[in-house]
Amino acid sequence: MITAHLTETEIQLYVAEPELISDELTAHVQGCALCQSSAANYLLLFKSIHDTAKPTFDFELSALVLEQLPAPKRAFPWAVILVLLLSVTVAAVSALFFWSALLTVIVGMSGILFTIAGTGTVVIIIFQIIEMLKDHQKRMNILLIQKTLQL
Ligand SMILES: [Zn+2]
To answer: How far is CA 15 from the centre of its chain?
Structure first.
């Protein structure tokens, strides 16, 4: 049995989350009148904090805040279209310019090499999709947790 009294933090833990306190500390509290008195005080304090009425507004706060927020702007995605046009142009020019070389490579490529390259491409795409789904799920969980905390 521990002879020294529990600290304030240990007594608060004993009252709030007794499963986190070691058996020795629990045994000390059960045999010590001073620590039992402190624990009773904290129990009363926690109970009164829990029982106090939660503050409420007599108006709808979220409606007032939403009124003052600016409306979201739906800008035309010029940058995306510009990058898309540039990419397509570069790919088309490259295909036209190197068409004979590409044709020679594709025709000359052995079946095994083509299969290996195709399989590798499919595997990479599958891993990319799995990674994207995991990332999406993680973000959704974070959003749901934040939404839960706000309520
Ligand atoms: Zn004690």
So the answer is: 31
Evaluate if residue 4 carries a pLDDT over 80.
yes
Predicted TM-score (pTM) above 0.70: no
Q: What separation in Å is there between the alpha carbon of 146 and the centre of ligand 1? A: 41
Joined together, the tokens standing for residue 120 give: 């590798």
- Residue 75 Cα to ligand 1 middle (Å): 67
Q: Where are the domains of the chain?
A: 8-51, 84-150
Give 34 Cα–ligand 1 centroid separation in angstroms: 5
Q: What angle do CA 98, 89, 129 make, to 5 degrees?
A: 95
17 alpha carbon to ligand 1 midpoint, in Å?
18
As given in the structure block, the two tokens for residue 60 are: 């709808």
